[in-house]
Write a structure and sequence with these properties.
Layout (H helix, E strand, L loop, with lengths): L4 H13 L9 H7 L41 E11 L2 H14 L3 E9 L4 E9 L4 H8 L4 E11 L1 H27 L3 H33 L1 E9 L18 H32 L1 H43 L1
Parallel strand pairs: 1-5
Antiparallel strand pairs: 1-4, 2-3, 3-5
């Protein structure tokens, strides 16, 4: 018996990782679910919560292709509402009162109010069979500007996940049996790794089933309530006319003059600071500019003298020509 433990471990490990070719993804289950849990196929197989009775690793107990075993539909129904009202508190009290009457509860709420507007965001949980009654009543509590009701049939996804979960549990029991019979440390490690992987898959499948069960057993209603301002309820305040006294006006003007003078003095101070700080640079620039000016003037004077010397000679030449 111990000699065949290793081959069995390898075979089951390959079977657990082979996806659609393993018992977990047997042809009937795959036809029912598909890669995206689609339920559009004509040969979908419906099973009850005791699906494990029809399914085992060998596939011998699976129903024949096309055989149907009736099961209750699992449908998730949710809704969204936007309501406009003249009195947000009154609408809130009416909605919550009806909610409790129909066996629902408040999951979350958030409100905002100021002098000009008020808003409230509510999340209600209510039994699906009472959802339509609640929505009909909500339309009587104000002006419904947006209404969205969604329904999602997850029957095939739920059944397929149940089948996979049962198969994982059976595989887990077998691996625990192999673990008890293993003697070599390498066998124990290999078996324990498979046990850990299968356990993780079981927890994932179980969590998914729990989430779907909760979603099916209660509908979520998201409600936005917005209060409109009633023109008849707007309070108009009288406008009071007030002027400054002569004393206050004089103080304001005096302070203005002082601030203006302070700004002017501050500007002059900074100009003086800049001049003193840059005085070496200014002196050097002044010397350079002075030298340049002198050079230019000298050139002009020399050029003028040359022109004056040339002019008498031209006059003499003209006289001789005459």
């Amino acid at each position: 018996m111990k000699k065949i433990i290793i081959p069995l471990i390898l075979i089951l490990a390959l079977a657990g990782c082979s996806g659609a070719s393993s018992a977990e993804y047997a042809p009937s289950a795959a036809a029912a679910a598909g890669d995206g849990y689609s339920n559009s196929s004509s040969d979908v197989m419906y099973v009850t919560e005791t699906a494990s009775e029809y399914y085992d690793q060998s596939g011998e107990n699976l129903p024949a292709a096309g055989e149907q075993i009736e099961s209750e539909k699992m449908i998730i129904r949710n809704a969204e509402l936007t309501i406009q009202t003249l009195n947000i508190d009154d609408t809130y009290n009416k909605l919550t009162g009806k909610l409790y009457e129909l066996g629902g509860s408040i999951f979350a709420e958030n409100s905002y109010k100021n002098d000009f507007s008020a808003e409230a965001s509510l999340i209600f949980k209510i039994p699906p069979q009472n959802l339509d009654k609640f929505l009909a009543y909500a339309e009587e509590c104000g002006n419904v500007t947006n209404k969205n009701v969604t329904s999602e049939d997850i029957t095939s996804q739920y059944i397929d996940t149940e089948i996979r979960l049962e198969n994982k549990k059976r595989n887990l029991e077998k691996y625990y049996g192999y673990l008890d019979e293993a003697t070599r440390s390498s066998d124990v490690i290999a078996i324990q790794n498979e046990i850990d992987r299968i356990t993780s898959d079981i927890e994932s499948y179980q969590g998914m089933l729990n989430y779907w069960s909760r979603s099916v057993s209660e509908s979520t209603v998201n409600i936005e309530i917005r209060q409109l301002q009633d023109p008849n309820e707007i309070e108009i305040e009288d406008v009071e006319f007030s002027t400054l006294s002569l004393e206050n006006m004089g103080k304001i003007m005096a302070n203005g003059v002082k601030k203006c003078a302070d700004v002017i003095v501050t500007i002059l101070q900074w100009i003086l600071i800049v001049i003193v700080t840059l005085s070496p640079v200014i002196l050097l620039a002044a010397v350079i500019v002075t030298i340049i000016i002198l050079i230019v003037k000298r050139k002009k004077r020399v050029k003028k003298q040359q022109i004056e010397e040339v002019k008498p000679e031209e006059d003499k030449t003209e006289e001789k020509t005459k």
